[in-house]
């Protein structure tokens, strides 16, 4: 009896059922990245240049641990001081790990650059999936000559995150100049915005490079991040003068409330610091089409980056609590204008602070670079699915670099516009930080809920939580809703116009526009938005997908697969192909 020849793993073989997403098809793809992507309805367009360690590096550099802590220390010190730094961080870290676990399970099941909105459409009830995907969709809009440019809520969160990171980089650079000038230089908002624009343009240039270049840079970013954290952990306790050293009793139980909220609620408001610091960790999802062994590497990167950041960040906060002195108000009002810079200055002096702070600025710069890469891949995914105007241009992949260069620059432009909120002063800066959290958590929570409530078939990937998936998902979603609510509160009770938190206004306007555009007569998304669109046909003999051992081994699909009509979704196009 002769053995049957092995079955070829090509797009026609694996696309046996409706796209998007059938878990058993991904098993049939035998973890082959290109074949697994074909099952999800997309042909391979990028080079898979990211190794598992480089995917982790991307996620870890987006978090940018110490610069992020420095940027949001202003939200921790006034709302509890040492207790907020130590125990607020520990409390949030637990729930952040749960969010990471829930997202990692989804990423392993369906690794695609669209990520969150793709999962929403795939797992939601057919009755609700279009509007829910749209909401995980549309939250940023700009009008020009009656043309509406909309970006989706995950993109809004990611791009607002880019804006807040680069704004923080500009503020930190201005703080370094202030230290170097003996505090005689006080930057204006216009000067800070100018630096912000320059930083953003540099990031757009880096984000336009070839995938393998961006991937290799992540190793450098990771090394610099970890070395900076270790330097702070070692140098501050060794160099801090006696007058600024705190006893453990104060460092672990001292509570300072500067803004008048009840102590318990003040402690809750301090959560903004760790929640913003360890944010954007869905970045690996958006480069999953550039990652090798994506179904395993992407979830591993999400979880490991959050766990490593949580532990290292907690140690850093303990060190700060031991070395910051007891006068929290002096730290907040120092002419340097940056609480972390003030703490380091008190410990290391002017020259030591300039040396350390220059590295902080560099790491913050690297953090923004990785964040823009993730945001641009998300925008590319939406454009590929014809979900935004100018989709043809934005979804174009540069022939030379094999990266979505137009999407990179479009994302940078949106971040530049969001940065204008900084002219509103501290209120505007707070709104940018809060908006990035609200946008991300809206986008994170909806697909996790759809995973359990949508009634669709679920087949996990290599990483699965098993029975623990349901309680983990429920707690993670409840925590994210709670986080969005607390970020709507002003910094102090009874605020005037200058002390008001305008994040809910901006966020509400965003949501309102999203729904208005969706239901707009004739032109609204309800008439044309049908979810993800396939870029590969099931009824054609497609290129045989093989395992990738060489980063340049990109299959030539130009003569074997076609893009479907713009009127069809991924599911409908393949359904028609089968008939």
Ordered list of secondary-structure elements with their pairings:
Elements: H1 11-14, H2 23-28, H3 33-39, H4 52-63, H5 65-76, H6 82-109, H7 116-123, H8 129-135, E1 138-144, E2 147-152, H9 153-180, H10 189-207, H11 211-239, H12 248-253, H13 263-269, H14 272-277, H15 283-286, H16 294-323, H17 328-333, H18 339-384, H19 391-394, H20 405-418, H21 426-453, H22 469-486, H23 503-519, H24 570-578
Antiparallel strand pairs: 1-2
Question: Could you explain how this protein is built, in words?
Answer:
This is APC amino acid permease. One of its GO terms (cellular component) is membrane. There is one protein chain. By secondary structure, this protein is mainly α. The protein has 24 helices and two strands. It has a two-stranded antiparallel sheet. Strand 1 (138-144) and strand 2 (147-152) form a beta hairpin. Helix 7 (116-123) packs parallel to helix 21 (426-453), helix 9 (153-180) runs antiparallel to helix 18 and helix 9 (153-180) crosses helix 20. Mean pLDDT is 76; it is low at 1-31, 138-152 and 538-579.
Largest sheet: 2 strands, antiparallel
Distance between the termini: 36 Å
> Can you tell me the CATH superfamily of the largest domain?
Amino acid/polyamine transporter I
CATH class of the largest domain: Mainly Alpha
- Which structural category do the helix and sheet elements fall into? mainly alpha
Question: How many DSSP E strands?
Answer: 2
Strand-residue proportion: under 5%
Strands of the biggest beta sheet: in what spatial order?
Answer: 1-2
How would you state the average pLDDT, rounded? 76
In CATH terms, what is the fold-level topology of the largest domain? Amino acid/polyamine transporter I
Radius of gyration, in Å, reads 24 Å
The sequence of SSEs as H and E is HHHHHHHHEEHHHHHHHHHHHHHHHH
Count of domains: 2
* C-alpha geometry: globular
For the record, the CATH architecture of the largest domain stands as: Up-down Bundle
Number of helices: 24
- Low-pLDDT segments: 1-31, 138-152, 538-579
Q: Which range best describes the helical content: under 10%, 10-25%, 25-40%, 40-55%, 55-70% or over 70%?
A: 55-70%
Main location: membrane
Pfam family, one: AA_permease_2
Membrane topology: Multi-pass membrane protein
Subcellular location: Membrane
């Amino acid at each position: 009896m002769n053995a049957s020849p092995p079955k070829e793993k090509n797009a026609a073989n694996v696309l046996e059922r409706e796209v998007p997403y059938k878990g058993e098809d991904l098993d049939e793809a035998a973890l082959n990245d290109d074949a697994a992507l074909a099952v999800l309805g997309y042909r391979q367009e990028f080079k898979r240049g990211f190794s598992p360690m480089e995917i982790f590096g991307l996620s870890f550099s987006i978090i940018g641990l110490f610069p992020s802590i420095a940027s949001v220390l202003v939200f921790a010190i006034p709302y509890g001081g040492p207790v907020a730094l130590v125990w607020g961080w520990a409390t949030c870290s637990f729930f952040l790990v749960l969010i990471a676990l829930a997202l990692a399970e989804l990423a392993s099941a369906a690794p695609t650059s669209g990520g969150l909105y793709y999962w929403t459409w795939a797992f939601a009830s057919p009755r609700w999936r279009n509007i829910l995907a749209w909401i995980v969709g549309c939250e940023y809009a700009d009008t020009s000559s009656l043309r509406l440019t909309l970006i989706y809520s995950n993109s809004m969160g990611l791009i607002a995150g880019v804006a807040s990171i680069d704004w923080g980089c500009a503020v930190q650079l201005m703080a370094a100049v202030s230290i170097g000038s003996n505090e005689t230089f006080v930057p204006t908002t216009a000067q800070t915005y100018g630096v912000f624009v320059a930083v953003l343009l540099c990031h757009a240039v880096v984000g336009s490079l070839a995938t393998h270049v961006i991937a290799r840079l992540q190793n450098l970013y990771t090394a610099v991040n970890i070395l900076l954290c270790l330097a702070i952990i070692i140098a501050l306790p060794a160099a801090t003068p006696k007058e600024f050293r705190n006893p453990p009793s104060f460092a672990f139980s001292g509570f300072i409330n500067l803004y008048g909220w009840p102590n318990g609620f003040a402690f809750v408001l301090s959560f903004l610091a760790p929640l913003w610091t360890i944010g954007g960790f869905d970045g690996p999802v958006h480069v999953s089409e550039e990652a090798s062994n994506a179904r395993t590497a992407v979830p591993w990167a999400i979880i490991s980056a959050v766990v490593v950041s949580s532990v290292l960040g907690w140690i850093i906060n303990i060190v700060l609590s031991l070395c910051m002195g007891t006068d929290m108000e002096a730290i907040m009002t120092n002419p340097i204008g940056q609480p972390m810079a003030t703490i380091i200055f008190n410990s290391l002096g002017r020259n030591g602070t300039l040396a350390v702070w220059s590295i902080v600025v560099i790491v913050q710069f690297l953090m923004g670079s990785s964040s823009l890469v993730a945001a641009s891949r998300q925008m590319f995914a939406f454009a590929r699915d014809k979900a935004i105007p100018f989709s043809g241009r934005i979804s174009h992949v540069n022939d030379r670099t094999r990266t979505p260069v137009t999407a990179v620059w479009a994302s940078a432009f949106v971040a530049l516009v969001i940065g204008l909120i900084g002219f509103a002063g501290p209120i505007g800066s707070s709104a940018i930080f809060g908006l990035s959290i609200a946008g991300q958590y809206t986008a994170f929570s909806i697909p996790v809920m759809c995973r359990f409530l949508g009634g669709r078939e679920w087949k996990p990937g290599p990483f699965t939580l098993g029975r623990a998936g349901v309680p983990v998902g429920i707690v993670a979603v409840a925590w994210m809703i709670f986080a969005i609510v607390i970020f709507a509160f002003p910094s102090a009770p009874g605020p005037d116009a200058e002390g008001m938190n305008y994040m809910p206004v901006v966020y509400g306007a965003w949501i309102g526009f999203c729904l208005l555009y969706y239901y707009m007569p004739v032109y609204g998304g309800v008439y044309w938005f049908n979810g993800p669109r396939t870029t590969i046909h099931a009824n054609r003999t497609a290129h045989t997908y093989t395992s990738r051992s060489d980063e340049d081994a990109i299959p030539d699909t130009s003569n074997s697969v076609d893009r479907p009509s713009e009127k069809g979704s991924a599911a409908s196009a393949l359904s028609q192909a089968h008939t």
